[in-house]
Amino acid sequence: MCNDSSYFTGKLFHVNGQSYFFNTIPGTINEIANNMAPILHDHLNPHGGCDIPRSGSYTGDLRPVIRNPYTTAEIKETLNHKLRLLVLELTTSCNMNCAYCINGTSYEQKDCFTSTQMSKQSAFDGVDYLINHSQNQSKPLAISFYGGEPLLRYSLLKEITIYAEKEASKKGKDIFFSITTNGTLLTGEMIEFFIQHSFQLVISLDGPAEINDRNRKLKNGEGTFNQIMNILQMIKKRDAVYFNHMVRCSVVVMPNADLIELATFFNELHVNLIVNFVETYGLDDARFRQKAPNNSMDTLQNSLIERLSKEGISILSNSSSGKDFSIALLSPMLRRFLESQSSSRFMELGQCIPGASRLYLAADNYYYPCEKLAGHSIARIGNIETGIDPIKAENLIKQFYEMISSKCSGCWMSSRCSACLALTCSGDGLDENKFNHYCNGIKSWGLSDLKMISKTMFQKCV
Amino acid sequence: MTKKTKEQVKADLAKARKELDKLEAQIDDVEVTKGAVDCGCNNPGCSGVEIVTYAVAVGASFAGGVYD
What we know:
By secondary structure, chain A is α/β, with parallel strands linked by helices. Chain A has 2 domains: 7-63, no CATH class; 72-343, Aldolase class I (TIM Barrel), CATH 3.20.20.
C-alpha cells in the first residue's frame, strides 16, 4: 500500500513518441517505458507535473517545498560584512530613445527618463559603503557603472574609478569594474582608460542594421548600427586581446525576430554576447508581443542539438561558447538542467539576500537590490545617508516568500526556476500577475529545454 | 477513454512500483543549496555579469591555448 501523504514530484513529457520523466529534486531526466506514461498521468498535479505516491515502506513527503532559506542573523551578517558588487546609476539621462527601453514610453508605468544626476559625494559615499561592508567577502569587489547612459558622466566615472582603486587598496582588496553602455559616446580616450583599468565593457547591439536600427535609435530618430560597428572595430584594432575577452555585446531579441539572421550576423562578428528576449511584461505596445510565424527557433535548437550530440556538452562552456549566438540564447536555462545531471543539487529559487549579490545605488540616492528593481518604492532597502536597513531587506524577502510559497511549492520546475523579486515587485507592492506571467513563460521554456536535452541525450547519443 | 476508478489507479501504481522506486531512489543524498549567491541572470543590460580581470581572462585563454 502506498502512503497517502508522501509523494515525489516530476514532469512527464514526450518527444517523438518516446516518454520521459524529469525528476524534480535530483534534476534527472529518465527515459521511461511508454506503458508507464498513463500511470504517471493518473497523478497529475495543479502545476502540470506529477505527484507520485511513495512506497508504503517510506515516510516523508518529497515534494519540493519553497520557503525562506535565510535567517535574520545571516541577512545581517551578509549585509554588514559581505557586500561585493556596487552598481552606480550615474545618471537617469540618456542620449537615446530605444523603443523597448524599460524606462521609456512603451511601458505601462511610463517611468520615462528624468534627468537625475548622481553627485560626486554620493558616488564616493557609495564606494566607501561597499568597502566598509565587505571585510568578510573573500571574492574581489566590483563596481559597475550604469544609467541612463553612464558615459554622459564620463569625468565622474573616471574620478570614481581612481578613488575606488585607492580606497580598496588601503584595505588590501582587489576591485574590478564594468560598464553597461549604448556605446554611441565612446571615444578613443575612453577606450584607453577602460583598457588601462581592465573594465568589462558591455555595449548594446541588436543585430544587423535593419534589426538594430528598428528599435535602437538616437533622440533624433537615427539608428546606431554604423556607429557601434565602427566603435567595435576601433576597440579591436587598438587591442584585440581586450576585445576578445573584455568586450560583450548585449543583444535584445524581439519575439518575432529571425534568429537565423541574428545567429549568422553575430557568429561572423565573433564578439562575446549577452542575449535575451525583450521583457514583454508591462509593455502596452502590441508590436513587442507579436510572434511572427517563423520556425527559426526550431531550426536554431535543432542545429544546437546536432552539435551537442556530435561534440558533447563541453561546447556550452568552452572558451568560444560566449561568442556563439545559439549557445548564448539557448544555454542559460539549458545549463541549469545539464549541470543538475552531474551535481545532484536541489537549488532553491533564485532569490538572493536583497543587496548582497549586488547593491544598486540609484541617482536619487536610494539603495535597491539591483537595477531591475530601481524605482519600485517597495524595493528601497536604504539610502546613502543611513545605509542598508537589514530589517527592510528581510521584510522584502518575507513578503516574496509569503506570496510564492503556496504557488511554487510542489511545482516540477521549482528546482530550476530563477524567479526572484525582480520579477515580482511593482511600485509599492508585489504584483501577482507579473509573477504569473513569468511563471508561465519559465515553465514553457523549461519544458522546451527538457525536450531538447532528451533528444540529445537519448535519441542521438545512444 | 473511460475514467479509471480509484482502485484501478492504485492497482496500476502497484504494478509500476519497481520502476517508480528506481526514480524515487534518485532523490537519496540530494544536496539542498540556497538561492542565488551570485546573480545568474542573463538579462540585457544586466550589470551582474561575473567580473574578471583582464589578466585572468587573458591568462585563462592562453592556458587553454585558444588565443591566436
